[in-house]
Amino acid sequence: MVEREEILRLEGITKLFFNICALKNVTFTLKKGEILSLIGENGAGKSTMMNVIGGVIQPEEGSMTLHGKLYTPQRTIDAKNAGIAFIHQELNLFNNLSIIDNVYINSFARYPGTPFIKKSAMRENIRKLLDSIDLHVSPDMMVEKLSPGERQLVEIAKALSGNPEIIIFDEPTTSLTTRETRKLFALIKKLREQGKSIIYISHILADVHELSDQIVVLRDGVVVDTGKKEDFSMNRMIVSMVGRDIKQMYPAERPVAQAKKLLEIENLSQPGIIKNISMHVDAGEIVGIFGLMGSGRSELANIIFGLDPYAEGMIRYMNVKLSKQDPIDRIKRGFAFVTENRREEGLLMEFPVYDNITLAVLRDYKKAFGFIDNAKLQKPVAETVSELRIKCSAIKKNQVKGLSGGNQQKVVLCKWLLTKPSFLMVDEPTRGIDVGSKSEIYNILNDFAKAGMGTLVISSELEELIGICNRILVLSKGEIVGSFNSNNFDREVILGAAFRQNISNGATNIV
Hints:
Layout: E1 6-17, E2 20-31, E3 35-39, H1 46-53, E4 61-66, E5 69-70, H2 76-81, E6 84-87, H3 99-103, H4 119-132, H5 148-160, E7 166-170, H6 178-193, E8 197-201, H7 205-211, E9 214-219, E10 222-228, H8 234-242, E11 261-270, E12 274-282, E13 286-291, H9 297-304, E14 312-317, E15 320-321, H10 327-333, E16 335-338, H11 342-346, H12 353-357, H13 374-387, H14 405-417, E17 423-427, H15 435-450, E18 454-458, H16 462-468, E19 471-476, E20 479-485, H17 491-498, E21 507-510
Parallel strand pairs: 3-8, 3-9, 6-7, 7-8, 13-18, 13-19, 16-17, 17-18
Antiparallel strand pairs: 1-2, 1-4, 4-5, 9-10, 11-12, 11-14, 14-15, 19-20, 20-21
């Protein structure tokens, strides 16, 4: 086998932030036509490493070489000019502009010596570029009209327009459907065949194992493991990332449902959103809702919490009929809701951790003239922070945006736990969270249920629902099309129900 050419080499990279070592003596190489996956828990140093390669920050020690020559980027434009492109988790697109405007926003082609833009030439170039990545839409299409997967492809087209040699993907599948993910993987493999070198960053270890040629593991800013994909089992990746063997990713025992219905829903409908939803959640159990993108999962959660309206049906909680749109009333009755988008809907990213944790209980600790009794509030906050093992040195000073994804999710859970809820809804509980934090979140939800709380978990990750739930309901096009109990969970059958295939093995009810 012919040895691939080395294209990028990092040697002894060390980076400090306020005397705290974010990277220490990091060394690895990327070869031409290779997919190298960089994995590690949140806070392991992956983002810092990418910022060094991208010229956002400069290391205190170490060196980088590109094609054997010293590479010292001082700005992001230096990385771009050197042939390095980034596909970030948060897409860098303007939704109110067309595809062609997004791709050429920093480099409009102009007629020589004039301010006039070569629109027709740009359009033809974009059309060829979109065809090459199997995105068959007009270059003049507004980005806001595209699906998340199509927007991801536009971001890739934008990167490819500069003909880069190295492309770095940072958590690219976070908002994609299974079909869109498969399409993205096919494109990444095609780029590798064309000689592009790929650095792929992801928390989804199955994807890492499928795509990679090489795997590099960071932990606490140090490369702790590296090697060929064939040499890495799933367990080796996990142990290398977290520094310990997670013998049980999911809780060893499921909670036991009590003979007490907390939430009851009858024939709930909202035109174009959901249709004839009937379900219940008992005290002490975890019920999962699974469905493909666009099935109505998150919309159903918003309706249950009183954020969105419904046209027909009934929602009862502890035998009391709830009003259609009144989330404040639901909170008072014991509801808690961890939304899918914690950054925009669950947290105030620029505020300290303490302020975020106390948001939902401020009215309960109000003194005369509207002042908050912080002295009384500090004890329950400290107890809950300790119980959820939130890693933060100074919760009253540190902004929540500085925490890892797993700790941010714990802050949201902590906020709701302070309200002493009896019913918890969690939408995508572990999205963008590393494997160690996932295990902790699963155990937290399990403990909630064991304490008698009813829990409704909405997730696009079927494996986690199978791992933690008592029952799984399958949603398709706004309807419940299957109901499964934990004693007969079957991945293929549940997926079949989501695709409305007529498979009945293991289901208590499939439409």
